[in-house]
Amino acid sequence: MKVYGMPYSTCTVRVLTTLAEKDEEGYEIVPIDLQVGAHKSPEFLKLQPFGAIPVLQDGNLTLFESRAIARYIAEKFEGKGTALFGKTVEERALVNQWLEVESHSFNPLIEPLVVQLVFAPMRGKEPVESVVKDHTYRLEKLLDIYEAHLSENKYLAGDFFSLADLSHIPYTFYLINVAKKGAAFTSRKHVNAWWEDISSRPAWKKVAAL
C-alpha cells in the first residue's frame, strides 16, 4: 500500500492513525508537498482529480477521501489490531452514525478554527476574528451535546474506542496542542476525559511523533 500525503495534513493523519490502530506497517508514505503545489500536478490529478490529499493505492485500488480510506482500512484489517467498527451490526451502526456527526457537524466548525488559528499564522496571515468567534461559539454549543452524551458513554459509539473517536483526533489536536485554544474541550468534564483518553492512545502518539 501507498499513502500519498504529508504527516502535517489532518486528513493524512486520519489515515495513518487508522493504520496504526490496526497494527499495520506494510505501507509507504509518498510525500505530496502542498507548499510547492504537488497536489495540483498532472501526475497527482490522475490519482485524485480534486487535487487533495491523501490518496491510498492498494494493488489495483486507488481511493481518495480520508474517511473512505479509513473505513476501507478498518474493514480490510478487520481481524487485526483494534476493532474500529465494534463487534456487532448494532455497534457498527453507532460508529457510522457518529462518523456522520463528525463529518457533517463537528468538522465544519473545527476545521475553520484550525485554519485561522494554526495555518493562517504559519503563512504569515492574521486570523479573521469574526470567523474565530463565530465558529468557537458554535463549537461550544455542539460540545454541549457531546458532553451530555459522554456523561453516559465512555466513547462516542458506546464503551469501545472506534473509528468515530479516531476521526475527531487530528483537528482537535491542532486546536488544543498547537493553537492552545482548547477551552471548549477542557472546560467540559466528560469531553475532556474523552479527549485525554483518545489522545493518549499509543497509535496516536506514534503518528503524532511524525
UniProtKB/TrEMBL annotation:
Q: Where is the GST N-terminal domain?
A: 1-81
Q: Which Pfam families match?
A: GST_C, GST_N
Q: Keyword annotations for this protein?
A: Transferase
Q: InterPro entries attached here?
A: Glutathione-S-Trfase_C-like (IPR010987), Glutathione-S-Trfase_C_sf (IPR036282), Glutathione_S-Trfase (IPR040079), Glutathione_S-Trfase_N (IPR004045), GST_C (IPR004046), GST_Phi_C (IPR034347), Thioredoxin-like_sf (IPR036249)
GST C-terminal domain location: 88-210
List the EC numbers from the record. 2.5.1.18
**So which domain of life are we looking at?**
Eukaryota
Name the chemical reaction catalysed here.
RX + glutathione = an S-substituted glutathione + a halide anion + H(+)
Q: What class of enzyme is it?
A: transferase
Family, per the entry?
Answer: Belongs to the GST superfamily. Phi family.
Q: In its UniProt entry, what is this protein called?
A: glutathione transferase
Species in which this protein is naturally found? Sphagnum troendelagicum
